[in-house]
Amino acid sequence: MLLSVAAALVTMALKAGAWWLTGSVGLLSDALESTVNLGAALVGFSMLRLALQPADDEHAHGHGKAEYFAGGFEGALIFVAALAIAWAAWPRLLDPQPIAQPGVGLAIVAVAALVNGGVAVVLRRAGRRHRSLTLEADAQHLLTDVWTSAGVIVGVALVAVSGWLWLDPLIALAVAAHILWTGWRLLRESAAGLMDASLPPEELARLEAILDGFRSEGIGEKIDFHAVRTRRSGARHFVSFHVLVPGRWTVQRGHDFVERIEARIAAELAPVSVLTHLEPIEDPASHADVALDRAP
Q: End-to-end alpha-carbon separation of the chain, Å?
């Protein structure tokens, strides 16, 4: 994240210089998006530090949800930047202005795009390695910025070649619409995390495959699972479910069976907190407690 902060400062300076040289609102829109990158990187760094703090008496499930505040803040910043871009571009659409020194300006923006692209690759690899929503979101945003810069470069080059001055503010408005979509996606993902949404489909499929493997161990006797619930808090996964086994099993045998299940899930979905509840499969009460609220 500190690398992202440094990249945001560099690219913001480069793009602001390109806009100052050319007067292009298309390049201004690209520069404004870099200010969002800086704000997002600073907030992301602070929220990651908070998320990494261990669980305590007041936060028994850890501080992982702090990462969702970073994503939500970044999404809100993007909305503000999009409005600022549209505010600057609309008057120029009504009264187009020529672009000065387009070649130099576009070369500077190309350098900034290369910086963002390199940092995005580093962040994405780190995000996947550490299962960090903040790092992955910042990487995705930087990659979006790279494509935005590429579109702006092509558009401004077309303005310089064709003389269609109205195309410059139109490009800026297209950039505003594009980053609005990015902001909406970040806000939606942050809201899903704060609302305890289930794990992604691919991880749920891995969990179900593990449980199916243990179901098949019940040769001549029934073993099942229900009330499977999952959620994600930053990098950590939370999984809970009921384990239904033959009532004649000893406590020790049931405990050993559950220990193997939890160890397998930990190996597949780490970092993960697993909570299980052992029940006799023959008891009707064992099949009546799958709801979130326990019936009296």
A: 49
> What is the token pair recorded at 198?
């289930």
pLDDT digit string, tens, across residues 119-162: 999 998 998 888 777 787 788 778 877 877 787 787 778 877 87
Nearest to 137 by CA among 176, 175, 188, 174: 188
User: Rounded to whole angstroms, how far apart are CA atoms 9 and 130?
Assistant: 25
Pairing of strands 236-245, 224-233: antiparallel
| Tokens found for residue 254 | 């049931």
239 bridge partner residues: 230, 274
Lowest-confidence region among 162-171, 193-202, 281-290:
162-171
Residues 43 and 143: their CA atoms lie apart, in Å, by 19
Structure token digits, residue 268: 């597949």
Q: Which range (98-102, 103-107, 138-142, 281-285) has the least confidence?
A: 98-102
Single out the residue of 138, 111, 112 nearest to residue 125, CA to CA.
138
Rounded Cα–Cα distance for residues 52 and 63 (Å): 7
Cα–Cα distances in angstroms (integers) from residue 194 to residues 65, 183, 188, 230, in the given order:
7, 17, 10, 13
Residue 108 CA to residue 92 CA, distance in Å, equals 23
Pair of tokens at residue 112: 């900034």
Token pair in block for residue 161: 């070649």
Give the Cα separation of 246 and 254 in Å (integer): 9
Is the entire prediction scored with pTM above 0.90?
Answer: no
Spatial distance between the Cα atoms of 16 and 143, rounded to a whole number of angstroms: 19
